[in-house]
Amino acid sequence: MQLVEGDALVERDLRAEADVAAQGRVLEATYLEKRGLFERMFGVFSGEPASAARKLAPPFDGDGGDAPGLFAGSSDVLPLEPRGAALGQVRRVRGRVVPLGPDVPPDGAVLRAIWLDKPPALHACEAIEFAVIPDEGPPVVLSFDLSPLVVDRPSRVSVSGFLSRVGPRMRALLREMEVDRSRREEGQFVQISSGQTVEVLCVIRAEVRDTHAFSIHGVSRTLPMEARPQDGGPYRGTSTRNAVLAGDAPGTRAVVRRIG
Q1: What is the pLDDT of residues 212-224, one digit of tens each?
Q2: In terms of residue numbers, what domain contains 125?
Q3: Phi and psi torsions of 223, nearest 5°
Q4: What does the alpha-carbon distance between residue 201 and residue 85 come to, in Å, rounded to a whole number?
Q5: What pLDDT is recorded for position 215?
C-alpha cells in the first residue's frame, strides 16, 4: 500500500506469510506527480492538508489504456524465451491467468487495486500469487514483494466497497498506516481475475525445476494441474516440470495489464 506523505510516497508491503510489513519511501516514479502551488493553496481552503505536495497519477486512463506508456517500449524487452530467461532481467510475458493455492476468492480475483485522489492520495493493492500461462514457453509464477501496477479499465468504487472485497490483512494494514477515509469516498478500482489474458512486465527471479512442489519465501507451493506443461502439450521447448518464478526487484516494480 502507498500513501502520500509530504513530498514522498510511503509504501508498506505485507506478504501473506509475514507478520510485519516492510516499509520504504518512493521519491520518484511515473505515477507520482508534484502538486502545483495553486492546487495546494486551493486544496487548503477545501480542507486538504497543506503538506500534501505530491499526488498520484494512476497508470491507466478511463478506457483502460496505458496512460504513462509503461508498455510503450516493451518491444525492446525480450519476450520470455521458451527455455527461460536470465535471472534479474526484465521480461515481457503474455498469457492466461491461473491462481495458485487455496486462497482464491469466490470471484477469482488475483489483483485488486484502488486509487484515491483526495489528499493524502492513496494506492492500495491486494495480490495473491498466480501463474501466467503463455502460448509458448514455460509457465511464469508471479509473486510480488512490492505493490504491482495494474492497468485495466477502471470503475468507481467506494472505500466501503473496496474494504468489503479485500481480506483482513489488507484492512489491518490500512489501520496500521492510520488511513482515515470516509467510507463513502470513491476511487478508481481495477481488478485482474482468473482466466483473463494479461501482459506482464516482470523481473525473472528463479527457475522452478519441479512444478509439483516448490517454495516461495519458505512457503510450499504447487502449480495447478491445468497450468503444468504436459508431454505433447502446448508449451514447446520446455521440460514437462519446469516453470519460471518472476515478480519485482528493488527499484523495479511489476506491471500487469489486462489484454483479454
Answers
A1: 888 888 888 888 8
A2: 60-258
A3: -85, 130
A4: 13
A5: 86
Total domain count, the chain:
1
Distance CA 142, CA 228 (A): 15
Decide: 110 and 128 in contact? Cβ < 8 Å: yes
Q: Nearest-CA neighbor of 58 among 145, 124, 7, 128? A: 124
Global pTM? 0.86
Nearest residue to 99 (alpha-carbon basis) of 125, 140, 131: 131
120: preceding bond cis by omega (within 30 degrees): yes
C-alpha cell at 195: 482466466
Q: Please give the biggest Cα pair distance in the chain.
A: 67
pLDDT tens digits for range 130-188: 999 998 888 999 999 999 999 999 999 999 999 999 988 888 888 777 677 788 899 99
**186 to each of 117, 197, 221, how far by Cα in Å?**
9, 27, 36
Does residue 50 belong to any structural domain of this protein? Answer: no
